[in-house]
Write a structure and sequence with these properties.
Serine Threonine Protein Phosphatase 5, Tetratricopeptide repeat; about 80% helix
């Protein structure tokens, strides 16, 4: 009788201890990490491989990120970057367009898609995402975005629109050297030699000389009859960029 009487008490005690154990260890296994943390872990891994140009090892991490969250914009953007690097252009565009369907104003997707289209020679198409990007007043690289937009506009023959974009880039960042050089060339093409010379002087304070800037400087100085400046540009061009010096001197 005594043994039988104690059995229910022992059973209840064991169950109570097990419940206590479950409460303290949350089931013996940690809960799964939030979806965003799991995706970011894969993206961090992929970014590291992409920076090292290790595309084969980046791809599984990016695939895993999209398996976890098929609507993650950055995962689609990085997949597009990967496929672009692999010359899989249709797949790259698919992922850019998917990212922008999910989040039409995503600055990373707009910038990278515009750059991708420009690199493919699709200048008219590139203007669309870049025009949307420059509307984002909080975008930290907005001056560069205006410069990129201007370059795309210039390639379509929209010189006035391009000029406005380059000027806007300089209003946002007066040291935007690329925009300064583009405005110098636009002025030269219009026969505004003094304006071109001023722009080139500004350019020299913010960037190292390039074959293009020296060649343009030579043409502007020659047009202005400034023999000393023309000789200086010609000498620098021959010393720094001998392979293109002759071509510059024979161009109209």
């Amino acid at each position: 009788m005594t043994e039988i009487a104690y059995r229910p008490v022992l059973l209840m005690l064991v169950v109570g201890l097990l419940h206590g154990c479950v409460t303290e260890t949350t089931g013996g296994l940690p809960p799964p990490a939030p979806v965003e943390d799991r995706v970011q872990a894969q993206l961090d891994l992929a970014r590291g491989y992409l920076e090292q140009r290790d595309l084969n090892r980046a791809q599984p991490a990016l695939q895993k990120a999209l398996e976890i969250d098929p609507r993650h914009v950055e995962a689609h953007v990085l997949n597009a970057v990967l496929f672009h690097a692999q010359n899989e252009f249709e797949l790259a565009e698919f992922h850019y367009r998917t990212a922008l369907r999910i989040e039409p104003d995503n600055a990373q997707a707009l910038n990278n898609y515009g750059t991708f289209l420009y690199s493919r020679g699709r200048f008219e198409d590139a203007i669309v995402p870049l025009s949307n990007l420059v509307k984002d007043t909080g975008y930290r690289a907005r001056s560069q975005a205006f410069e990129n937009l201007g370059l795309a506009q210039l390639r379509t023959g929209a010189t006035q629109a391009a000029e406005a974009s380059f000027q806007r880039a300089l209003e946002l960042n007066f040291r935007q050297a690329g925009s300064t050089l583009e405005l110098a060339e636009i002025a030269f093409d219009r026969g505004e030699l003094q304006t071109a010379a001023s722009r080139l002087l500004e350019y020299r304070t913010m960037a190292r000389p390039s074959a293009r800037s020296l060649c343009l400087g030579l043409k502007v100085a020659t047009g202005l009859g400034d023999a000393d400046q023309a000789a200086s540009n010609e000498l620098a061009l021959n010393n720094l960029f001998p392979a293109v010096a002759d071509q510059c001197l024979t161009e109209p």
